[in-house]
Specification:
By secondary structure, this protein is of the alpha+beta class. The chain is built from 3 helices and 6 strands; from the N terminus they run H-H-E-E-H-E-E-E-E. A 6-stranded mixed sheet has the order 2-1-6-5-4-3. Strand 4 and strand 5 form a beta hairpin.
């Protein structure tokens, strides 16, 4: 059984990788069939096949997203935003030997030029053990906002 301290270490390491913009390294945390979802704010419990999502990337789309973010032609992130993630209230909800379900709160602060935005919500990570390592098979970032204001978009990895 994964301990809460081990879960926290995993989530804190993931947050550091994203804050340091090591996006290729972040991709390595995913399984070959990994997914990254950000559901719409009005249907946080939906699924991409029945509900409009802000982001519903499989591993192929996620690789393309990272390539776009690293490109000098990604105008929304050139120069790249600075971010700082705060993770808390980490819980291990399930560890049945095959899958691990983590739940945690987050605040992501985004700084770009003179503008700062914040995104508040919770993560649901579904992990699998692979070769002695934890890998993400599904990462959901569920926002608490009713609408994305003031930016109206999410150009960073939450």
């Amino acid at each position: 059984m994964l301990t809460r301290a081990e879960a926290e270490d995993f989530l804190y390491q993931e947050a550091a990788i994203l804050d340091e913009w090591r996006l290729r390294e972040w991709l390595e945390l995913f399984t070959d069939d990994g997914q990254y979802w950000v559901p719409s704010t009005d249907r946080p419990d939906g699924t991409p096949d029945t509900t409009l999502f802000l982001i519903a990337d499989d591993i192929i789309r996620l690789r393309a997203r990272i390539a776009r973010l690293e490109s000098p032609h990604a105008h929304a992130e050139v120069p790249r935003s600075r971010t700082r993630r705060m993770i808390g209230n980490v819980r291990v909800l399930k560890d049945d030997g095959a899958e691990i379900l983590l739940w945690s709160n987050f605040v992501v602060y985004r700084f770009r030029g003179e503008i700062s935005d914040h995104y508040v919500g919770h993560y649901e990570h579904t992990l699998r053990r692979s070769g002695g390592e934890l890998k993400i098979s599904l990462r959901k970032a569920i926002l608490d906002f009713e609408a994305l204001r003031p930016a109206g978009k999410v150009s960073i990895i939450l």
